[in-house]
Each structure stands twice: as structure tokens, then as C-alpha cells.
């Protein structure tokens, strides 16, 4: 079928159901299903993009949601090393990275999936709105069968290793993203013995930075140890504390002579 993608795009552009489901209007909350559910617990694997859509209720407590997570996700895939949560609950023995309150972009992976769920449900359920829970497994299956641009394969193919070169495709695409993001940036690496200006952060030093006319930096300090290309141990006074994070600039000796 020559030009199949173009022809399918043209058909979708003429589909009234698709146009209505993909409206730019912000969607409202889900109607209560026939079994009393009124929200969807979304779990997304960042690497494979595989998802699980679990119907639940806004009144479910932490214990119930944790049990759902164990039953529907952990029993299939094992415990995650890191979970990015929207600050709604706590999980079992796993490192938590909380997204920022009222800032869904910080958990962008799930937010993209949420929009896709809403679009698919709108296209499928149409008139009988309380039937959305019935179609949720079908939506999950369709999503996990869809090819993603990052890996060039569907989540099912990535998770079940149907293609050996998935990692190579993802690595190549991530390198492209990295090159684009770092375009124009100059990498600066400091050596042992270098002098660095330390910029005082307002949050750590409120007294020293309580006025706009006060110096924003402190005297330069020696580099004692290189932890990595972005982290250095400096010859700092005890007032800074053992773990001090700050922006640093190289100091040119003789600049004030």
C-alpha cells in the first residue's frame, strides 16, 4: 500500500469522532463508573513506555492504592528502583522522586499518557459515559501496541525483547536529544589547585543576601578534590557546611591588581 501513512492521516482528518475526541478544550473529570470508580491510576515505565491503567476511586486511601500497585504492577514486573510520584502517596522500599506541586511538567511522562487516555476514551465510549471502566483494558492494550518514536518499537516489543536493537535505537535518539540540548554550551572542567568564585545562594545564606547591594559571591577558594566533572570539593570555611551546593566560576589571579 504505497503512501499508506499519508492516506490514513487523511482519513483520520476527516473522521468526526476523532475531531471531537481530540478537541483542544480541557477535559473534565471522569464520570463515576457503574462499579463506583471515578479516576484512573496511571503507571508508566520511563524506559519502555509500557503503561498500566488501573480504575480506582478518589476516596481510596494509601493502603488501597499501594495494594493496587503491588497487584497490578509489582507482581508482573517486580519492584521499581525509582518512582516519580505526584506527591499523592508513598510506596514500598523504593526511592521516591516527587514532582513539584501544581507543576505537572515535572512528571511529564505520565502527563503525556494522561492526555492519550482521555483522547482514546472519548473516541470509544461516546454516549454511555459510565462504561469507561469496561473499555480501560482495551485502551491499555492499544497504547502498549503503539510504536513510539523514541525506540521505534511498541512498549510490548521493548518489554518482551522481541527486537534486540531496541536499546541501540533509544541510545541513538537520546544522543540526538543530548546534542540538541547542549548545542552552544561550553564545558568547563576545573583542576586541583584552581581558584573558584563561590556564588552565595539566597536560600542558604539569607542574612548575607538580604540586600541587592550586598556581594553575591564570596572570596575564591582552592579546589581540593574532583568528584566528577560537575562536582568539586573546595577549601571552604565551616560556615558553609559539609554539603554545600552552589554555582562556581573560575577566578583569574591578578584581575584586581
Automatic annotation (TrEMBL):
Query: SUPFAM superfamilies per the record?
Result: Ribonuclease H-like
**Any one Gene Ontology molecular-function term assigned to this protein's record:** nucleic acid binding
Pfam families listed in its UniProt record: SH3_Tf2-1 (PF24626)
- Gene Ontology BP term (one): DNA integration
User: Record's InterPro entries?
Assistant: Integrase_cat-core (IPR001584), RNaseH-like_sf (IPR012337), RNaseH_sf (IPR036397), SH3_Tf2-1 (IPR056924)
Residue ranges annotated for the Integrase catalytic domain, each copy included: 92-163
Please give the superkingdom of this protein's source.
Eukaryota
Name of the featured protein: Integrase catalytic domain-containing protein
What organism does this protein naturally occur in?
Answer: Mucuna pruriens (Velvet bean)
Amino acid at each position: 500500500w504505497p503512501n499508506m501513512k499519508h492516506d490514513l492521516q487523511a482519513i483520520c482528518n476527516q473522521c468526526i469522532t476523532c475531531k471531537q475526541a481530540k478537541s483542544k478544550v480541557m477535559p473534565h473529570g471522569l464520570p463515576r463508573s457503574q462499579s463506583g470508580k471515578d479516576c484512573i491510576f496511571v503507571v508508566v515505565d520511563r524506559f519502555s513506555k509500557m503503561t498500566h491503567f488501573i480504575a480506582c476511586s478518589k476516596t481510596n486511601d494509601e493502603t488501597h492504592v499501594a495494594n493496587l500497585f503491588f497487584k497490578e504492577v509489582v507482581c508482573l514486573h517486580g519492584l521499581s528502583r525509582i518512582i516519580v510520584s505526584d506527591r499523592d502517596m508513598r510506596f514500598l522500599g523504593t526511592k521516591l522522586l516527587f514532582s513539584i506541586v501544581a507543576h505537572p511538567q515535572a512528571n511529564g511522562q505520565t502527563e503525556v499518557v494522561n492526555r492519550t487516555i482521555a483522547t482514546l476514551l472519548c473516541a470509544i465510549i461516546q454516549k454511555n459515559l459510565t462504561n469507561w471502566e469496561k473499555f480501560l483494558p482495551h485502551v491499555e492494550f492499544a497504547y502498549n501496541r503503539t510504536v513510539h518514536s523514541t525506540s521505534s518499537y511498541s512498549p510490548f516489543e521493548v518489554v518482551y525483547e522481541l527486537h534486540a536493537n531496541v536499546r541501540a535505537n533509544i541510545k541513538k535518539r537520546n544522543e540526538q536529544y543530548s546534542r540538541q540540548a547542549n548545542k552552544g554550551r561550553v564545558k568547563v572542567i576545573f583542576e586541583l589547585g584552581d581558584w573558584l568564585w563561590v556564588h552565595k545562594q539566597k536560600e542558604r545564606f539569607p542574612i548575607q543576601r538580604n540586600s541587592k547591594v550586598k556581594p553575591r559571591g564570596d572570596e575564591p577558594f582552592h579546589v581540593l578534590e574532583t568528584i566528577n566533572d560537575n562536582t568539586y570539593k573546595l577549601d571552604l570555611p565551616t560556615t558553609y557546611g559539609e554539603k554545600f551546593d552552589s554555582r562556581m566560576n573560575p577566578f583569574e589571579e591578578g584581575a584586581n591588581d
